[in-house]
Specification:
3 domains, 4 strands, two-stranded antiparallel sheet, metal-binding, zinc, zinc-finger, 12 helices, Znf_MYND, zinc ion binding
Amino acid sequence: MSFTFNGREYNVDGWIREAISLVELLAKNLKLLDPLPSDTDLTDADEKEIQSQINAMLILPPFAVLDFWSAFAAHHLRQLATSLRALSRTTQPRAFSTLIQVLSLLPDPKTEPYFRRFIQSPQYADLANIIADGFVQGIRWKRPSGPGQICCLIIHFLFWGNSTKGDDGKASIDADVRTKLARKLDALIGTPEFERLPEIQRVDIERLHGILKCIEGMPADYYLSSTRSYLEGQVDNCGRSSCDEEAELACSKCKTVRYCGKKCQTWHWKNGHKLRCFQVAY
């Protein structure tokens, strides 16, 4: 399989190498490798360069987009989390919003194991509050992201994150932040601004609104724990997509993709995972 990107033709092997190179460029542009001083925000030129690179991904085949974001998730989410914690939404709104936008563009954790591992890691549980509170306070939207994608990102943290990290044990987001978030969504849904959004964004906004109601309406973390158990049951199968056996053996390199046994692991290594096996930096 081959495709053309930026005037060059790539096969799968060549694209993985190029994707890793592009990931490093994005990390550099996001200032993940050289964090911004506390009194400095991204410039117009910085934002333009980042948006140009993100928008360029839109013309890629789906598998190539997944490869790009998988490499980014494996290599730079730890740095992104560190940067996001250090940024001020009020004095560094561009950088703050851009990092959340990038997170919102990552594939569904159900299908992207590196992102799923990141969300499930206890050391990043605080990001759920940071992102949700940022949404409440106001985030600068840049296409292809938007309020719907941010709501979907919050849902990922609710569904896959550890509910005990929230202050009331019902969700990974604290109770007061959930209350503010619900009010924000109440005020948004049904407005002309809401109706102008693409349907898929409206659906995700309404979905988060409904999830928050379910969380508050059930005892402890019953709703999220039952949902999480269901989702984890769907990803516990062998990493070889054609196999439905329960996975017990993890890849020794990435420690993220799991298999039912050596036979499927060997097959998957030869048929794709070798190229997409990244050592996780968290």
